[in-house]
Amino acid sequence: MNRPKVICHMTTSIDGKVTGEFLGMPQCERATEIYYEINRDDHADAFACGRVTMESSFTGGWYPDLTAYQGVSIPREDYVADKDAKFFAVSFDRKGRLGWKTPCIVDDDPGYGGAHIIEVVLEGVSDAYLAYLREVGVSYIFAGREEMDLSLALEKLRSLFGIETLLLEGGSIINGAFARAGVIDELSLVIAPVTADAEDKPLLMDAAAGAFELVDVKRYDGGVVWMNYRAKRQ
Question: Which CATH superfamily groups domain 1-45+166-234?
Answer without folding.
Answer: Dihydrofolate Reductase, subunit A (3.40.430.10)
